[in-house]
Amino acid sequence: MFLRGDIGDSSYAYITGGLVHEIEDMCRSTKASAVPVVPDSEGTETNPFSLDALAVFMFRVLHRVNHPGNLDKASPNAGYVLLMFYHLYEGKSRKEFESELIERFGSIVKMPLLTPDRNPLPEPVKSVLEEGINLYKLHTNRHGRLESTKGMYTKDWAKWEKQLREILFDNSGYLNSVQAPFELSVKQVLEQLRAIAKGEYTTPRTEKRKFGNIVFAAVSLPVTEMISFLSNLGERNPEVEAFLKDKNMENSLAKAHVTLAHKRSHGVTAVASYGPFLHQEVPVDMIALLFSDQLAALEARLGSVDGEKISSKNQWPHVTLWTAEGVAAKEANTLPQLVSEGKATRIEINPPVTITGILDFF
């Protein structure tokens, strides 16, 4: 089984999304091998693909016709869609990107994309891409994944899409000249695939490989102390007491922890970064209780270890306390949004109560 990843192709999202672990499971159960094939790029400090690569991807898409996914030159928001794909790995360097794929699948095939001796990206091309990235951040911060043809930035997107096409086409000579020859790309990909099939591929040895069986990093909290804390909180607050009355916390809170990073959501590198603090005590402040008719969690504020602040990769650090039957624990992440919509309750704990846990891998 070969996985192809290419910005501007829907299969790129297939590699980046939550289906990756299903591919891993399928490989284990069928004894098949999955090989990620990705465009080669030096990337940036925060993205596996450079602006040069992004420019070429956009240029190629804007020359396509009759694409089955309607991502071609006829698409009015092709640039926005490409930026959406580009940001799937935002915050991850090229090294982290490749290391994670190797960690998951044992190998990686790099498809030549750009010529190594190319001239720098023309300033107009660089500027229009940076403008698009800034607009994308504004749009997603306000509207999330709402299409660019909707929302308050519609006119800005239309103007940018037009400008993008004009500038890329004005620089057609450059963008055509910096692309690796197609025949060379095919040849090198086939050579790498043959090497893997013959068992001649050497997996790079990295410190990270020892984290292969670890799924997430978290601060584990003492359950008995957590239950005692909730009981005391209920005694002081009638609303909390009413909520906890029919909840069997001894059963639902068999384990308590604050997730710091998860392999599937944040990558192996993010999980491994907590290694220096392994088995260290971490003070955790409980600052609020949030609950709905299906979920309950404590909002948490992590403390420091030897003067170094411990931060969670999760946007909302919390301890999941209870979920209704059939509701996944990960749904607790939606509680702040539910509170803002009036569908859940938030009770501040003032002053916060500190419970000390142990940082560990699971």
Fold and architecture overview:
With 362 residues, the chain is of the alpha+beta class. It is built from 15 helices and eleven strands. The strands form three sheets. Strands 5-4-11-6-7-10 form a six-stranded antiparallel sheet. A hairpin with a 2-residue loop joins strand 8 and strand 9. Helix 3 packs antiparallel against helix 4 and helix 6 runs antiparallel to helix 7.
Choose one word for the global shape: globular
The number of E-state strands comes to: 11
Distance between the termini: 29 Å
Enumerate the strands of the largest sheet in spatial order, edge to edge or round the barrel.
Answer: 5-4-11-6-7-10
What would you report as the Rg, rounded to the nearest angstrom? 24 Å
Mean pLDDT: 87
The tally of domains stands at 2
